[in-house]
């Protein structure tokens, strides 16, 4: 690196004439100088440098902010990595937009007052009082001149409404700023005059000041900012004593003594740009996460919101770690201890990492697509979104049954996020081992099609419901067996849920409904028949039925008169505990043997109904169905030819069917409906279908 005088921005750092500066680390060396303070003051020249400037910018890029603050070269990397702690107006560099939907306009006010420098004879070797500085290896340069000024960055922000154009809003705001007139005439200027459209726009902007001035107050509104802005010239002091160093001229110590430490090389511009682009990309990923976090989907579903926040945090953690590594390399490369290739390798590893812009953009794009789909579904559902674990109890306080459109994949774990976590936590030598996860969405084409069908079914149930005792809501609850969405039903008497599945065959009560009556000749004597032989009730006292070969003499069962073939549908309402069955006529009727019990032989198929669950059985094989039985009505659909027998829970209010089970068999003879009532006061009644 050539031994030339370098000009650096002070960025709020306390530069003074004669101070040492280490350009390898971009830091001042306090307490060391070539001269004592009295000698410095005697050989200091002060030249007036009055200059005032106003700039308006709508850009928030690192490149443009660095340019507005005269931050160039690898100093930008020192600021980004935190090696340089900025202060005053320079804090503006670290203020980034929070949203792509945010309009930001920055007004910069700059005024310089004077220039201070040491006389040339002061740099002669004989004038040095503390020559040990050259042997210390602490500093590479000495401050020989400084430009004093005061800057102010007024950052105006506002969130745009969905119907607003960013360019139009910013154009109106910039027109309002043009009313400020010439900066030199600010003192005593009247209030800024705005037309109605300008006032409507500026009133929605908030203001943040980053300044070297000592403000009497921190304004937040446009009007308050303008009132302070007009007072800025008065805050400089009569002789500019309230200004701060803006730029410093650094003289190489090696030019004064060859033994002094040197800054061997600077970072190449291409590498500086590459690092800046990486940081800009990570910043943009965080900004896009902020937008997604306030989207309808994220606000409605905590699991979706949590994943967005998780990625944002991981991006920030990774960025800080990357900048820490950059910051540690800078002084080593500048001092000649390391080569630029180390920084090149660091960037290469970044591009190969899951935090590359390609993979982050892909993940965020996937989440944006998912959010758009969720938002579209919520608009079509027109139902309140509830927390499935916290709100169901409150809903039941005002209703008996709850029908939930359930998004089933939002709580699913995200392998890519897990991979990011492992990548950050693992040591660098382990990062390339193991499976590399790529961003993927649960919202495949098949899942999307399934969700649309579920939406149509749910809205159909909602529109057909005529009961005030049924509530329709939207929830999110992970269900691996039903990816995308399903309909879950909750009964007020049970905490368990059942997934609603539409009938596999269309049920039409007008064509397939059958009228059933109980056969008194088959009824056990502890069963009482009523309502025209449509209802059976368990009783303790034996009924005076005559002997009959078809009567059940041990188990409290009864079958119907009508034989069933073809397609048949009927419904039965039960209380207490009951068995609803279909059987061949040849089922055993006598004695205490298992062959007589519905579901315990090859001749019958049954559904046992109890308060909290159902059991299905055939040939003595039982299966428990964990489903709330708050509805006491069961639908039975027989397709004799197709060999299917289906049982459904029938909602007592909406008359919607929830599939419980389907038997598949080859029926060889006519079937008969049968019922079992084991206890007194339990009953089953054949329902009349409209």
UniProtKB/TrEMBL annotation:
Keywords: Cytolysis, Hemolysis, Secreted, Toxin. SUPFAM superfamilies: Concanavalin A-like lectins/glucanases. One of its GO terms (molecular function) is toxin activity. The keyword Secreted applies. The keyword Secreted applies. PROSITE patterns: B302_SPRY (PS50188). Its main location: secreted. It comes from the Eukaryota. Residues 496-690 form the B30.2/SPRY domain. It is found in: Secreted. GO terms for cellular component: extracellular region. Pfam families: PRY, SPRY, Stonustoxin_helical, Thioredoxin_11. GO terms for biological process: killing of cells of another organism. Belongs to the SNTX/VTX toxin family. This is B30.2/SPRY domain-containing protein.
């Amino acid at each position: 690196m050539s031994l030339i005088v370098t000009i650096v921005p002070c960025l709020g750092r306390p530069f003074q004439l004669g101070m040492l500066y280490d350009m390898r680390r971009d830091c001042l060396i306090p307490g060391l100088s070539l001269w004592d303070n009295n000698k410095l003051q005697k050989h200091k020249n002060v030249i007036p440098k009055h200059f005032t400037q106003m700039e308006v910018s709508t850009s928030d890029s690192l490149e443009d902010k660095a340019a507005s603050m005269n931050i160039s070269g690898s100093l930008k990397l020192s600021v980004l990595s935190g090696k340089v702690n900025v202060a005053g107006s320079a804090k503006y560099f670290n203020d980034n937009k929070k949203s792509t939907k945010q309009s930001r306009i920055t007004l910069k006010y700059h005024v310089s007052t004077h220039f201070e420098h040491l006389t040339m004879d002061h740099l002669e070797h004989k004038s040095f009082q503390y020559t040990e500085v050259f042997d210390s290896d602490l500093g590479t340069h000495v401050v020989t001149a400084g430009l004093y000024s005061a800057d102010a960055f007024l950052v105006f922000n506002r969130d745009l409404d969905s119907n607003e154009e960013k360019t139009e809003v910013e154009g109106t705001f910039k027109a309002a700023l043009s009313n400020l007139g010439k900066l030199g005439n600010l003192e005593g200027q009247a209030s800024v005059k705005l037309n109605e459209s300008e006032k409507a726009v500026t009133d929605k902007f908030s203001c943040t000041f980053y300044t070297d001035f000592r403000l009497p107050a921190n304004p937040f509104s446009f009007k308050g900012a303008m009132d302070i802005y007009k007072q800025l010239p008065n805050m400089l002091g009569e002789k500019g004593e309230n200004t701060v160093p803006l730029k410093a001229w650094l003289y190489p110590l090696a030019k004064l003594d060859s033994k002094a430490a040197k800054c061997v090389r600077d970072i190449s511009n291409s590498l500086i740009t590459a690092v800046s682009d990486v940081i800009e990309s990570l910043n943009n990923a965080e900004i896009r996460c902020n937008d997604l976090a306030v989207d309808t989907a994220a606000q409605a579903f905590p699991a979706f919101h949590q994943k967005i926040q998780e990625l944002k945090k991981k991006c920030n953690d990774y960025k800080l770690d990357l900048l820490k590594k950059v910051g540690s390399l800078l002084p080593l490369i500048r001092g000649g201890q390391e080569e630029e290739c180390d920084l090149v390798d660091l960037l290469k590893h970044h591009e190969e990492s899951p935090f590359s812009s390609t993979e982050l953009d892909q993940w965020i794009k996937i989440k944006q697509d998912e959010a758009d789909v969720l938002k579209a579904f919520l608009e079509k559902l027109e139902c309140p979104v509830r927390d499935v674990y916290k709100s169901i109890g409150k809903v039941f306080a005002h209703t008996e049954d709850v029908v939930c459109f359930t998004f089933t994949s939002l709580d699913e774990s995200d392998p890519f996020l897990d991979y990011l976590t492992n990548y950050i936590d693992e040591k660098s030598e382990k990062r390339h081992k193991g499976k590399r996860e790529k961003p993927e969405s649960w919202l495949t084409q098949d899942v999307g099609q399934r969700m649309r069908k579920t939406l149509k079914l749910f809205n159909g149930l909602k529109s057909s419901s005529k009961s005030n005792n049924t509530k329709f809501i939207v929830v999110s609850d992970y269900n691996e067996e039903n990816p995308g969405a399903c309909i879950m039903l909750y009964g007020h008497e049970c905490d368990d849920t059942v997934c609603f599945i539409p009938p596999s065959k269309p049920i039409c009560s007008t064509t397939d409904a059958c009228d059933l009556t109980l056969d008194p000749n088959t009824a056990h004597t502890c069963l009482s028949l009523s309502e025209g032989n449509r209802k059976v009730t368990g009783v303790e006292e034996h009924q005076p039925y005559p002997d009959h070969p078809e009567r059940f003499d041990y188990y409290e069962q009864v079958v119907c008169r009508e034989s069933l073939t073809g397609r048949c549908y009927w419904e039965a309402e039960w209380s207490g505990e009951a068995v609803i069955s279909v059987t061949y006529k040849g089922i055993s009727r006598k004695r205490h043997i298992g062959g007589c019990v519905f579901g315990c032989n090859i001749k019958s198929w049954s559904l046992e109904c109890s308060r909290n669950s159902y059991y299905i059985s055939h040939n003595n094989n039982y299966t428990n169905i964990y489903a709330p039985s708050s509805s006491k009505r069961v639908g039975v659909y027989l397709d004799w030819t197709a060999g299917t027998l289906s049982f459904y829970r029938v909602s007592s209010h909406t008359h919607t069917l929830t599939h419980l089970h389907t038997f598949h068999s080859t029926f060889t003879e006519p079937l008969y409906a049968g019922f079992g009532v084991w206890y007194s006061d339990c009953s089953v009644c054949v329902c009349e279908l409209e």
